[in-house]
Specification:
The protein has one domain: PEBP-like (Phosphatidylethanolamine-binding Protein). It has two helices and nine strands. Helices cover 17% and strands 27% of the residues.
Length: 189
């Protein structure tokens, strides 16, 4: 009887431990583009002066405001970085992931992407709406998540401006060495 009680207590504890490990170690692999690596331990960070991680995106940066990109602050870029890639998307869009902005060949010495700007020498791609550049969030209903994902690459990309996110993903394949993610939320009033 004591063995059955111990097993009854241990099984739920093991399940909780396995779930916690998956949450901690599996988190980085769930949103990776262009890499076959399963676990990247990020040393870099991405923040914004406009909103906190998991905070609300101010309407200024949406279709309800000035339709400009927020300032993004980049910290602790790894030494092996040859370039950075920024992808902003909405995983909650009704038709699937909606890409709002892609920017690549960002110089790794860049410490911020200023409000309403693109870093010098960087190249912008095509959003899901077939527009090049920043397409402001404009959720059709409810609260949507907006992921600002910054990838560190060990190469510069030979990719023309206006390329799609799938072309960008293919070009990044095998070159991602680090990444950072910043999440915001927005609901239209």
């Amino acid at each position: 009887m004591n063995t059955m009680i111990k097993i009854g207590i241990m099984v739920p504890a093991v399940i909780v431990l396995v779930f916690a490990c998956l949450q901690i170690f599996g988190k980085k692999s769930s949103n990776q583009i262009g890499t076959s690596q399963t676990n990247i331990i990020s040393t870099m960070n991405l923040t914004s002066s406009a909103f906190a991680n998991n905070g609300n995106l101010p309407s200024k940066y949406t279709c309800d405001g000035q339709k400009i990109n927020p300032e993004l602050l980049i910290g602790e870029t790894p030494q092996e970085a040859e370039s950075l890639v920024l992808i902003v998307d909405d995983p909650d869009a009704p038709a699937g992931i909606f890409t709002h902005w892609t920017v690549w060949n960002i110089d790794p010495s860049v410490k911020s992407i200023e409000e309403n700007s693109v870093p010098a020498g960087a190249i912008q791609g095509m959003a899901t709406s077939n527009e090049v550049g920043y397409v402001p969030p404009c959720p059709p209903g409810g609260t949507h998540r907006y992921r600002f994902k910054l990838y560190v690459l060990d190469t510069m990309l030979d990719l023309q401006g206006g390329a799609s996110v799938s072309e960008l993903s293919a070009a990044m394949s095998g070159h991602v060495v680090d990444l950072a993610e910043l999440i915001s939320f927005y609901q239209r009033r």
